[in-house]
Amino acid sequence: QGTPVVLGIESSCDETGVGLVRDGRLLGHAVASSMEEHARFGGVVPEIAARAHVHAFTPVVHRALTEAGLRMSDIGAVAVTTGPGLSGALQVGLAGAKGLAYALGVPLYGVHHLAGHVAADTLAHGPLPDPCVVLIVSGGHTSLLLVRDLARDPITHLGDTLDDAAGECFDKVARVFGLPYPGGPAIDRAAREGDARAVTFPRPLTGPRDDPYAFSFSGLKTAAARWTERHRGQALPVANGAAALQEAIADVLTRKAVAACTAHGVGTLVVVGGVAANSRVRALAEERCAAAGLTLRVPPLKLCTDNGAMIAAIGDLLVRAGAAPAPLDVSIDPSAPL
Ligand code: KG4
Ligand code: ZN
């Protein structure tokens, strides 16, 4: 019968995502987002996110199936994010996944959200080389990982942010600059008209005695707030601030990621997560990987941000590796470690 079609479900934050993958191939996916409902609060409101998942769940499953030209009865396994993420939001996805798996009589796989982000790239570029270094940069995470066989080996944590995630920094500084939520895309857009050299922002944890793979972004937020304060009563040159902030974040992220590859003798860098959508992060990663003789892999934008295809992708890898399914009483793990 060959490998089964895996239905992947993602609901850890504000995106309800459903994807269908078989044998490493993306067959179809759909996403609904409650982002606009959170905009006026300047960040994701857990209660609103959970309610939006309940609202969107079944229609998004339907849309993904329709896009793939498949029927419910074609699903051979269900994979779902069990953590990390917002508790109420995760509960909705897991409850839906259990219902589907039980009704269809197919195995259920509980997966780690970040393993999903890593697996997303396999849908675009095929199997990951073993080993590779993965930079995960999103609103909730900023980590450098050493990845071997995604389905079999534990992921090694090389470094992590000590405070804010890079996406969180984009979002918080955007707020300080008076730009809309989510801040990352807004800063990316504003930066196009700006001059990054007009403002000097720090490069945290890049000194000779600093941990080479640790990140810190809360100081950048403070620096951006101070710079904004200095313009009180004048027009704020937002474009320059946005360009300089983006440059500082892209510089630190790519410098450390390339250093991790070099130090570990790894030839491929993979950049995933919402911030991988940033135009300057992409450009600088390309430039520096080329200079260091590294292969750079960045999945297309729609696979970079939260989606169900990435969860189906890691589910598909687990199925093909013969991993044990989850019991039907599996629980969410909101603060799941990597
Ligand atoms: O991976 P993701 O969709 O959700 C998780 O956090 O897991 O990432 C969302 C984050 C937000 O902080 C958003 O501002 C950021 O990714 N982001 C960007 C861009 N697009 C999304 N940051 C910088 N530049 C962008 N173009
Ligand atoms: Zn994510």
From TrEMBL:
Q: What class of enzyme is it?
A: transferase
Q: Which terms in the Gene Ontology molecular function aspect does this entry carry?
A: iron ion binding; tRNA N(6)-L-threonylcarbamoyladenine synthase activity
Q: Pfam families, from UniProt?
A: TsaD
Cellular location(s): Cytoplasm
Q: What is its main location?
A: cytoplasm
Any Gene Ontology biological process: tRNA threonylcarbamoyladenosine modification
Enumerate the InterPro entries for this protein. Answer: ATPase_NBD (IPR043129), Gcp-like_dom (IPR000905), KAE1/TsaD (IPR017861), Peptidase_M22_CS (IPR017860), TsaD (IPR022450)
**Where do the annotations place substrate binding?**
I136, V137, S138, G139, G140, D171, G184, D188, N278
- UniProtKB keywords: Acyltransferase, Cytoplasm, Iron, Metal-binding, Transferase, tRNA processing
Catalysed transformations (reactions): L-threonylcarbamoyladenylate + adenosine(37) in tRNA = N(6)-L-threonylcarbamoyladenosine(37) in tRNA + AMP + H(+)
Q: Which GO terms describe its cellular component?
A: cytoplasm
Amino-acid positions noted as binding Fe cation in the UniProt annotation, renumbered to this chain: H113, H117, D306
Sections of the chain in a coiled coil:
none
This entry's Enzyme Commission designation comes to: 2.3.1.234
Instruction: Please give the Gene3D superfamilies that the UniProt record associates with this protein.
Output: 3.30.420.40
Domain (Gcp-like): residue spans on this chain: 26-312
What cofactor requirement does the entry state? Fe(2+)
- What does this gene product do? Required for the formation of a threonylcarbamoyl group on adenosine at position 37 (t(6)A37) in tRNAs that read codons beginning with adenine. Is involved in the transfer of the threonylcarbamoyl moiety of threonylcarbamoyl-AMP (TC-AMP) to the N6 group of A37, together with TsaE and TsaB. TsaD likely plays a direct catalytic role in this reaction.
Kindly give the PANTHER family that the UniProt entry links to this protein: TRNA N6-ADENOSINE THREONYLCARBAMOYLTRANSFERASE, TRNA N6-ADENOSINE THREONYLCARBAMOYLTRANSFERASE, MITOCHONDRIAL
Family of the protein in this entry: Belongs to the KAE1 / TsaD family.
NCBIfam families (UniProt xref): gcp_kae1, T6A_TsaD_YgjD
HAMAP family listed in its UniProt record: TsaD
Its recorded name reads tRNA N6-adenosine threonylcarbamoyltransferase
Organism name = Streptomyces lydicamycinicus
Q: What is the lineage of its organism?
A: Bacteria, Bacillati, Actinomycetota, Actinomycetes, Kitasatosporales
